[in-house]
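Entry 12.
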Amino acid sequence: MAIIKRITSSLAAWVAATPLLAWLLGALAAVLLEHGVGRPLADLLGLPKVPVLFGMVLALKSPGLILSAVAYGTIIYIVPIVLITRLGAGVLNQAAAGLLRLNLSASVVIHLCLLYAVLHLWSDISDYRVLTLKLTLIAVMLTLSLNVINGYMGEFSCSHPGFMALGAYVTSVFTVAFFVKDKLFGPPLLPPELGPYFFPVALVLGGLAAALGALLVAIPSFRTRGDYLAIISLAFMFIVKSAIENLEVVGGARGLRSQPDWANLPFVFLVTVLCVWVINNFVNSTMGKALNAVRDNEMAAEAMTVDTRRTKIVAFMFAGFWAGVAGGLFAHVLRYVNPATFGIQRLAEVLAMVYFGGLNSVYGSIVGAVSINLLGEALRPLELFKWIIIPLLLILVMIYRPTGLVSFKEFNVRRLVSPKTPPGGDR
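Predicted 3D structure (tokens):
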């Protein structure tokens, strides 16, 4: 046990001392290496194709390929990343600190460009990777928005699939009715060439519809105390799902299709970055501090002149808005939307991401969304057993880390970009 603790602490110290720039350059080298020698290496190791998800899917489908999949992942990913982060940590720490002193915004843009380059090159191997990456980015948005309510506000909401459904259907109706020739809506009302320029408007409309739905939940819920929000929000989710199933004007239970292919990877990435930035600023604003005060002690917050009811309603609508935007992107990534998608299973997935990653933490939401989403895809060959392994993992996390893996940790851009930045720097 002592040896394991020493290894863990040494690994944590190494990771903490390595700048984000080194990790990104290591990942970039890895994906470039995969583009160059991935196919020949897969043939040499006896793999039928280049592994689409770090070799895990192939290993689970064919256990005899486990050693080959591990070897592929080690050569392509682990070796270049470890070499660059170990050998270049000192120089890259100085480079990151220099960029930070020069201009924080420029440093952030450089890091985001490197991150997008890594994601683009990695996903360029197959359409499956592109789809998985888009859905993971959307999951980050959903998890962040729910964490505003369940983490920062300290309530327990079950209405996020309903908000997502409102955003998905309002956005889809706008784009399909105005810009697509469809059997349900007929000829387009506007020239299709204008559609991509109006797509952000459609997402905002979807977000506003979800925010209005959040207001309808919040008004009666926050007049009460205790667990009533969970009950009312769960009822709202079922009401939205049932209403859509019975509205033939939007396809009813058959669903709605023909969404245009406008949610490409660059657009989804930019919207996700915007969502992270806006939510991080929100939770670190005066409103965010008021939310924390309400969560810790509502009576004390009221005594300190915090308008607790207004604070909770604004936060609830804010979270609903981003869930609606995520729903709109989700519908246009799949190019089909069905009310059955926004049920109990979707709620369980989003709640798992929030509580696995960590409450009251932007870092935690990102970690939870990425890990649960990728783990779910990697375990897909196990079919039913996947829904045994993931809950068991969640149970272990709840036992040993009740608040999640990365909880109550502020998202500090300066410390993220350069570990040498002294504590207390600007976010």
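Annotation: The two ends are 37 Å apart (CA to CA). The longest helix spans residues 195-221.
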